[in-house]
Specification:
Length: 354
């Protein structure tokens, strides 16, 4: 598809997850739609879209719908034969191709499917995936790792009625083969450790590693963090005192802003009590950060742990004090599977020996 055609194209991202790929490609197309079978993922994508203003080339907002890949012909608001470009990313190995290709044919306009691109990898994470996570690899993981070279295409299906996809119109393009960034797809050739950590933290192989009983009690090799290296500087450790609280017994020391028209503290005269202002604020990089490098997130039930699925390298969950022991056990197990750190995982769940 040429650049001029892309500018007027309708993009469909199936298995969009939190919508990262769709937001990267949206500025180049006329309309962008993302679907995912998980309601939690679609909710995360919609929330992120509200916080990050990303629109298509024509100024339309991004759309996210809950729908399975095999039912992509039932996506709300997408007319038949209106989709120009399909993106499936790392979710394609979950598709049932026998049902997916006929469904996509109803929405496809160009009849020119292209093979999705695998993630950018470098030598260390590439070896990490091949060696450490190899025992937890499924055929679908192997398919994406091999750049979808063995992906079942529509003309490979043994169906009674062949689908009208032509092998002659098929073009295979490859990016970042063997972990060597090509830069042809746009964006940066480098990945930050934070982005790599987010990607690995939600990988299915990592999830299976966490569910393995023999790894219980082991430190999570993805979400383990060192304490923050930025010094936590508190510009003022003393409390701000209320004006004239030292003169009158009826005035407590707790801070109240003076509002008198002639008040010398409000007018900031030299030698008077200091007033709180933005200059006393803590460094933004370490604000609300605990000594272990995480920010605290209070949870009351196992479902709230899922909110940290894409933020498990920034926030650590803390179980609220009023949660029952039975629900605490469920929260601890959910956090272990999702790779979310808990600050008080042992609270009220330890058993006494007889």
């Amino acid at each position: 598809m040429s650049t001029s055609h892309v500018a007027d194209a309708t993009l469909l991202d199936i298995g969009c997850g939190p919508g990262n790929v769709l937001r990267d490609l949206a500025p180049f197309v006329a309309e962008a739609i993302g679907t995912d079978p998980s309601q939690a993922m679609v909710a995360e994508a919609r929330n992120t879209a509200e916080g990050v203003v990303t629109r298509t080339r024509t100024g339309k907002p991004l759309r996210f719908e809950v729908e399975e890949a095999e039912a992509c012909d039932q996506i709300r608001g997408v007319a038949e034969g209106s989709v120009d470009l399909l993106v499936a990313g790392m979710a394609v190995y979950w598709f049932d191709m026998e049902w997916f290709w006929p469904a996509f044919y109803q929405k496809n306009k160009a009849i020119d499917p292209s093979t999705p691109n695998a993630t950018k990898v470098q030598e260390i994470p590439f070896r990490f995936e091949r060696e450490t996570l190899a025992p937890y690899e499924l055929p679908g993981n192997r398919l994406s790792r091999d750049m979808y070279s063995n992906l079942v295409l529509p003309w490979d299906l043994n169906t009674a009625t062949p689908l009208p996809f032509s092998p002659n119109s098929f073009i295979r393009r490859e990016w970042d083969r063997d972990g060597i960034p090509s830069g042809d797809l746009g964006g940066s050739d480098t990945e930050s450790l934070e982005h790599l950590e987010k990607g690995l933290g939600t990988a299915s192989m990592v999830t299976r590693w966490r569910e393995d009983e023999k790894n219980e009690g082991c430190e999570d090799f993805v979400t383990a963090k060192m304490p923050v290296t930025v010094p936590r500087v508190h510009k003022r450790t003393l409390k701000f005192k209320r004006h004239q609280s030292d003169r009158y017994a009826g005035l407590k020391e707790s801070w109240r802003k003076p509002k008198g028209i002639d008040n010398r503290v409000r007018r900031r005269f030299k030698g008077q009590l200091p007033m709180p202002n933005i200059g006393y604020g803590t460094n933004k990089k370490t604000r609300h950060v605990m000594p272990n490098g995480y920010k605290r997130f209070l949870v009351n039930n196992p479902n709230e742990v899922e909110l940290l699925l894409m933020h498990n390298n920034t926030f650590a969950a803390e179980i609220a004090h009023g949660v029952s022991s039975r629900k605490r056990i469920a929260i601890v197990e959910k956090a272990r599977v999702l790779g979310v750190k808990l600050t008080n995982s042992n609270a009220r769940v330890r058993t006494e020996e007889a």
